[in-house]
Design a protein that fits this description.
Radius of gyration: 19 Å
Order of helices and strands: HHHHHHH
Largest sheet: none
Structural class: mainly alpha
Distance between the termini: 44 Å
């Protein structure tokens, strides 16, 4: 029988949830490491016209030359693992509704897609890279919609923020697939809001767990 207790978030705070939240928070490396690689690029790198994947391109040609390509591709794999393992570890934190279960499953799929993209650089295996990246993008944004929906009743602002990130990301994905004249901007609109939201959700979980763990101060 379904529980009559009102939903809470986090619903459970155990060591696995702490691990999952920490992994999601650690995925901020996705942004930090890209900034490092852009600064080290030996060709002018444009956020408007260059793809994120160009930073992992293993060749050094007239248009693209990323000396930290191994570092970037390793980052994709590590962040993909953070997303997927974080979802598996923290699944009990989410209200036990279908959207919560669906959200963590989709985020695990998104992480797997990013791992495939990192293991298959754009110039080494373009087909596998494109499939992994597309699956990752779509699943990541749908995950934010589902996770946001699951906590709307208990964390309305956070829920709406997650859903907003998912909507913007899906619009950006459509813009990117339509062949935007500024593919770098389109890809970042598709990816960055929801990727950042994973970090926000992880940090929020950690803060909530720490707050619950503090002993109450007796009045005196």
């Amino acid at each position: 029988a379904p529980s009559s207790r009102p939903p809470t978030f986090p619903a459970v705070t155990n060591r696995r949830v702490v691990l999952g939240a920490a992994l999601w928070t650690l995925s901020v490396l996705f942004f930090i490491d890209q900034a490092i690689a852009i600064a080290a690029s030996r060709r002018p790198y444009s956020l408007a016209t260059n793809l994120i994947s160009d930073l992992g391109n293993t060749t050094c040609g007239p248009a693209i030359c990323s000396p930290l390509h191994t570092f970037v591709n390793a980052t994709f794999v590590v962040v993909g693992l953070c997303h997927a393992l974080g979802a598996l570890a923290s699944h009990r934190a989410w209200p036990r509704v279908r959207s919560g279960r669906l959200g963590v499953e989709l985020l695990a799929i998104a992480g797997a897609g990013l791992i495939v993209a990192g293991l298959s650089p754009e110039n080494v295996d373009p087909a596998a890279h494109a499939r992994g990246a597309l699956v990752g993008l779509v699943a990541l944004n749908l995950a934010m919609l589902a996770l946001g929906w699951s906590i709307l009743a208990v964390k309305p602002r956070l829920g709406r923020l997650a859903q907003g990130a998912g909507v913007v990301g899906l619009v950006g994905t459509g813009y990117f697939l339509a062949g935007s004249g500024a593919p770098g901007i389109a890809e970042r609109i598709a990816d960055y809001p929801s990727a950042a939201m994973v970090v926000v959700l992880g940090a929020t979980l950690l803060v909530s767990i720490v707050s619950q763990a503090r002993p109450a101060v007796a009045p005196g």
